Amino acid sequence: MRECLGKQFIHNGNLTDTSAFDDSFLKNPHYIYEVFRVIDGVALFLEDHLGRLKKTCELSEHCHGFSFGDIYRQVYEVIKANNFSYGNLKMVLYRNDQKNSHFMIYITEHQYPTPQQFEKGIPVALFKGIRNNPNAKVMDVKLRNATNLIKQEMEVYETLLVDDDRCITEGSRSNVFFIRHGKVITPPLHDVLPGITRKHIIEVCRNLLLPVTEEKVSARSVVVMEGVFITGTSRKVLPVNRIDDLEFDANHPITRQIQNAFNDVVEKYITEHSKTKS
Q: From CA 19, how far away is CA 8, in angstroms rounded?
């Protein structure tokens, strides 16, 4: 699988031919990154992703000194240079062996759930694992490799991380929500990556007048949950039909209500920003 696609990408502010792309940073166990969707040539929730990138840089003490106005402009340079209308863009910030900073924006591979997975749900497995700095969007290569192995061996779509207190925190590449007695529950923000989709789902729930709360969810308590779904840039709102051997209703009405409302939020964003993109 190629890391960088298209004809050109941004490297340290300059539009560069992808033949010069160096993917050696992938061996770096901890590099800063953001992945976001492009739909109809619009970078979805770009302001949110730039805000999280800034926060990650602060938490990681990796000050690059770039202007977020410049990054916004460079994102659309990549989109325009590649005539790119649909897929994923990735931003990467890392230091090489000489401690020089590198910042890149490029088209990357994407794997979106199928219509059948959105309809029937996906299986997930519990996995004991903790991200060292959960609020920062920093690649943890060791954890990523471990969860990928579990997904392959158990034939599941995603793994849900379980901490030392036996509480579920988040997915390896997603946030997770539970439904019980008409209430939507998600693990506390301080324990998880502040997902962009997660943020919008909480807003959607409040607009729908659905009770939504952040609270710890023990692995043992999933047996009393009535519905489960994961969220993420590529996954949007994706129902879960099984956690380990425990089955769930992927067609829970609250899940569907949130799913439809979030799709409306995305469509509204794309429509509004199609008029202003540069």
A: 8
